[in-house]
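Final report, closing paragraph on structural work. Over the funding period we assembled a curated collection of sequence-structure pairs, and we close with a single example.
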Amino acid sequence: MFHPTNLDPSHIKLEYHTILDMLAEETVSPRGRALAQSLRPSAEIRRVRALLEETEEACTLVRSGASVPLSAMEGIDSLLLLLGKGAIYTKQDMEQLLVWLHAIKQMKRYLTAKASVVPRISSYAGSMEECTELRETLERSIRYGELTDEASSELGQIRRYMRLAEEQVKRRIDQVMHKHRDALQELVVSQRAGHYVLAVKRSARKLVKGTVLDESASGQTLFIEPLEVSSTHAEWEAWKSEEGLEETRILAVLSGLAESYKHELEQNAEAMAAFDFIFARGKLAAIQHGCRIQITESPLIRLQSARHPLLGSQAVPLDVQLEGVTRQLIITGPNTGGKTIALKTIGLLSLMVQSGLLVHADPQSELGIFESVFADVGDGQSLSQSLSTFSAHISAVSVMLKQAGRKSLVLLDELAAGTDPAEGIALSIGILEEFLQRGTLVVATTHFNEIKLFASATVGCRNARMAFDAQSLQPLYRLEMGAAGDSHAFAIAARYGLPDLVIRRARARMEQRESGTDDATSFRSIEIEDELAKPITEHPREETKSHSSAHVPLQRGDSVWVHPLGSTGIVYREPNERGEVIVQVKGRKHAINHKRLTLQIPAAELYPDDYDLSIIFDSKETRKLRNQMARKYVEGASISTPEED
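Its predicted structure, as stored:
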């Protein structure tokens, strides 16, 4: 596996190195693999367009089922390193070189024939040199790893004499074998140290004149080169020596010829590696169902049906737009709802496109060319890391603020996480304002309403939410532009078995906070002692579902889902004759038709019997005044109900 050492940390967080790993696996040569691993996004639009065109053409051939004659170039790098150093290649080296030259010729002719299908790639074939003289000389000189008799006239003549000498040796030893057959252990001619010998019985040693070259393990058999053969064998050995000298001379000549093509051979190696790299991109595109989308110099994001390349069939299409005056997109929604995947999809696809890789998206999608892509994306900090989650976030953002400009893309996951919410929210909004002033494109995720409100009230910002099925409590992993989403924490908590008592108290406290009544005196235990005495529902999710589907009259204090606002609210005033209900949502009161409300939890289950609902609906100042007026007359004092929206 490829372990990046010089990749941008943001790119690693977006898993760009995993894409490079997959790309490298599609190469067939060491040089092609090195090119794949060194691929980096480019901010030059002309280069990006050229890379995308190459990849698209390669993918077209791959999808057609064509077999591209790429070369693995085995051993070629070591051969090229010897060029210009006066080295003499071995016969095996020469054969490798010949095989590679055949591959060069085949690749060049293949691409030329495919010019109508892959015009850009085929135009590169002209950079390859067939080295015709070298190839034809090697074809004549090398076969099956050996020099041929045609390698030189001298070598051919030497080998003819050598074969004659060997035949004479064989004839003479056959004659001796039949002459002394009774002295032999077996009628077999064998070889020892390159000499032809006979297996002679030790007892008959004196009958066979010659040199003992070996004996059997028992010592009863001697392997003798007969005297009649020795002189002829010497002649044969002399011709073999001449052959070796001539082969060395020929290899030196061939090596010199190869050196004269040093430039062309190195150029061929670069070209073949480039083709390997290009077709690896094409193969990866085919595997990932990639296509070539539009690119522009303007920093923008316009993705349609975009899928994360590492999720395979599990990837849900993403539609997202960030362009024109809108420079920031704030994504909200529940945990595990796909917010982080949305960020990673946007970031990784941007890096891939600027690297000349095709992506799985609608061809009409469009991405700007970014000079830099920054990402603080992840699932939180490991216990082994020295920085806290908040410190790590701030450290990453600090680097971004030093470098990001108008042509930068910044991806921020979980704004305001890891610290006091009030301070974290204030810092996050300050950071967003700074990026907005610079014109930097920002996509961020958050759970905090204050940041959602900032986005909805600020020119240049826009909200989006990850779709969530409130009935089944299942995330839909679909990004919906233009609206903020809820975390659905209470519903999800109930689904996963959090006690109903805990959820009821949490809802009441949230309403207090949103209505501004969460001061030290009012944000009390909510009659915890009485609550603890109540039985806890075994299956809160099923009970909630039954309430939401039941057609019961709404009462003051009921928790309801407000469909037009996509949020939870509390009934402030029961339905009038027109069926309108006054509902308080995040401190504001709205008149909503009862048909557009779904009961979630009845007030009877949320609060004790004697619970003062004014804690939820009235401000702290109103409640203080109401208490004073209950004790005595307060001149000029009056309490009015705020107008509903």
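The two ends are 60 Å apart (CA to CA). The chain has 22 helices and 21 strands. We thank the funder for supporting this effort.
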